[in-house]
Amino acid sequence: MAVREIHRNNKTVWQVDVTSRELNKRERKTFSDKVSAEKYEKDLLFAWEKGLPSPRTSDLAEISTNTKGYTVKQAFDDCYEECWKGGKSDAKMVQKGNAIMAYFGRYELLSNITSVRIKQWKRDQLSGKAKLDGKPVCGATVNRNLSCLSKIMRVALEEDKLAKMPVIRKEKDSVNRVRWISDEEERAILATLRMWTAEGNNCLNVEHAYIVSVDTGMRASELRRIERKHMTTNGLYVGLTKNGQPRVVPLTDRAKRILEIRCKIIEGDLLFPYGENWYRHKWEEVLEHLGLDDVVWHTLRHTCASRLAQNGVGLAEIKEWLGHETIITTQKYAHLNPSALQRSVGLLSSRVDAIGDAQAQM
């Protein structure tokens, strides 16, 4: 499977040669430009995977004659420059853009990303077929990926580089599906990190990051920005947040103790002075060792919120604690706090009973 440059009669052409032993198929076609060849290869692989007819080479005529057409890569680059470059979501959007281009093809025409193909992409993400590791992603992640693609296409539409928007239907939010770490799982995680540190596989920084994260509910990006001066008598000041609103997060005794330790052992202002996803390698080794296949780092944030809800903290307080932009985001933890409803009905019963007693004495 390759796109090869070939020289014939003092002329350069590009040949697509694709073979599928599973399907017992082989296609070989020649194109006058490399972009058309690469696009045909992507289209052909997509058609074979989905059981569709092979694409027609006549569909590529516009690419060869019209400045190669407006591709997915060009659309992403334009959207990135206008909307995301240098912002808080810069790195994350690059990651999502690369995933979109890996699936649909960097040189695929943006106009060929139809509603049908987007729907198939959504299904492939949920089943794991859209990723090299074969791991499925949750509905919330699928929706964020769809939002990225939608933004790319909408910017293209506004710049008259796309004739119309395809239909993009998001997954329904599973409000009650929240994964949090149990006390038993936390003991196992911390025991593993400490054991590996003692054996020379230094996991101390990951252990410290785990404790601060699970006790504060901070995002990984917020953790990396913690400075000495952010520790206050009321808690930990979080200035640069996802929704743009600063907040102060209360500190548990052990989280405060960890940050105080890091103030002594870490030089410089930042207490976690590392790059993006610095913890991932060792964290994923711990999860694999313990068989926690459905846990990710963001699960620590869910764990903090879940523990607050389970201990009777109201949704409004959890919203402020986590820095959610709207209460709708916090609503997913409502079912974990039935005791709040019981307390409320108790207060209502007391009031109604008092009114009844007053009426009986009239």
- Unreliable residue runs: 61-68
- What is the CATH topology classification name of the largest domain? hpI Integrase, Chain A
N-to-C span: 92 Å
Strand content: 5-15%
Q: Please identify the top-level CATH class of the largest domain.
A: Mainly Alpha
Provide a count of the helices.
15
Strand order of the largest sheet: 1-2-3
Percent range of helical residues: 40-55%
* Order of helical and strand elements: EEEHHHHHHHHHEEEHHHHHH
Specify the biggest β-sheet: 3 strands, antiparallel
What does this protein structure show overall?
By secondary structure, the protein is mainly α. The protein has helices spanning 34-50, 61-65, 72-84, 90-104, 115-127, 139-158, 183-198, 204-216, 220-224, 253-265, 280-290, 299-310, 315-322, 327-330, 338-360; strands at 2-8, 11-20, 25-31, 231-232, 235-238, 247-249. The strands form two sheets. Strands 1-2-3 form a three-stranded antiparallel sheet, covered by helices on one side. A three-stranded antiparallel sheet has the order 4-5-6. Helix 3 (72-84) runs antiparallel to helix 4 and helix 8 (204-216) crosses helix 12. It is elongated and about 85 Å long. The protein starts with a strand and ends with a helix.
Short description:
With 362 residues, this protein is mainly alpha-helical.
What are the key terms here?
three-stranded antiparallel beta sheet; 52% helix; hpI Integrase, Chain A; single chain; mainly alpha; 6 strands; 9% strand; 362 residues; elongated
